[in-house]
From TrEMBL:
Domain of life: Bacteria
GO MF assignments: dolichyl-phosphate-mannose-protein mannosyltransferase activity
UniProt name for this protein: Polyprenol-phosphate-mannose--protein mannosyltransferase
ArnT-like N-terminal domain location: 11-196
Signal sequence segment: none
Keyword terms of this UniProt record: Cell membrane, Glycosyltransferase, Membrane, Transferase, Transmembrane, Transmembrane helix
Record flagged with keyword Ribosomal protein: no
Originating species: Candidatus Curtissbacteria bacterium RIFCSPHIGHO2_02_FULL_40_16b
Subcellular location: Cell membrane; Endomembrane system
Function recorded in the entry: Protein O-mannosyltransferase that catalyzes the transfer of a single mannose residue from a polyprenol phospho-mannosyl lipidic donor to the hydroxyl group of selected serine and threonine residues in acceptor proteins.
Gene Ontology, cellular component aspect: endomembrane system; plasma membrane
Residue ranges of every copy of the Protein O-mannosyl-transferase C-terminal four TM domain listed in the record: 236-422
Pfam families in the record: PMT (PF02366), PMT_4TMC (PF16192)
Amino acid sequence: MPKKLVIFIILLTLFSLAIRLFRIGEPDHYYFDEVYHVVTARAYANNEPAAYDPFSPPPEEGTAYDWLHPPLAKLIQAASIKIIGDKPFAWRLPSVIFGTALVPATFILAFLLFGSTVAVFAALVIAFENLTLVMSRITMNDIFLTFFVVCSFVFAYLYTLKRSTKNLLLTAIFLGFAVATKWPGLYAIAVVFGFVMLCDFREKRLNFKPLLLIIIPTLMYFGSYSQYFLQGRSIDEFIGLHQQIWWYQNRSDLSHSYGTTALFCTPNGLDTEKSWCPWVLNIRGVYFSYEGYGSENAGYIYALGNPIVFWLGIVATSYVVGKFVQRRSMKILLILLGYFIFWLPWIFTPRLLFLYHYLPSIPFLAIVLGYEFRDIYHSKFKFVAIFLMAVIAIAFLYFFPISTGWPIEVSSIDRFMWLRTWR
């Protein structure tokens, strides 16, 4: 890799780290789903069995244990609490680290697939994407899932180039990390396994090695519950826990004012009236936090994507789909599979979700945009690609205050609400 590219990604990564660390201790209390994740990470740190019990009473008023998701991300957060102490900085630092690492991971994947120009544009897009920033600053698990998924795609592609067992094992390990963080890691396993098998089939290299992509993540999923079993739980209790998880994840009676599916707003639950607000259009974000600073100022944290990235992304995705139809490129197929697998299945969800469930698709959307920008940049309209990238960066900075809780005048929040549905 040219020295200039190395310097570029190092500087961009340092920039991403700085803005993620900026005021990371604010607010100095739980906000949004930290009421579940922080208390659970703390309980893991203290080896409290109640954190794994679906029927445990709330550890504090207004909180509850998060037993709905696999433990890995919360175990990482628990380690941070044990090392640094039980304070907001420690709760959120792991998300900062993994959210920052997502930038070079996206760059590497784009570079391997499409070269330096696509990689530069893709890295810039993900670095200047607001939803990614917000999810890198809160004690939740989505940013961990997203990083592990991108890494698994990196090593899966490397495996298809040289059939190195080491790369296959690394692919399987990152898939294991993904599924041990959140169940959508199963989507990554399905795509990566299918892609590797397709590549092997096309090259008449069929063997049993790719089965490691299923076996190792399965073992790692069970391994992520090591603390659970060391506390004396049985396999029957493990099965019972997963029955409770499955029941809850299939509930259709849940409601939330910012609840959505991949296509619709469903504030009163999926069995009630819906309105059109697909994630890809960035129509409905989520208010995470409101923090008062005196009588006139407040800090808002709003899980909203960079609208320019989302809206240009629709055009770019259509363009890249066209390129795939034209070229039948396996590289393009891999990126499109990565993009679509993390939101299309949610069209059929039995329960409400939120915009941030779209997060794992965003690195792939960044690469899709980078691909289109590369083609524009290498045409006579080079300035258009530069201009569009500049607009993305400006939009990111414009929405930065409501992505980070930076105090603003209460009356000024209206200027950020470009769409009526964002309120």
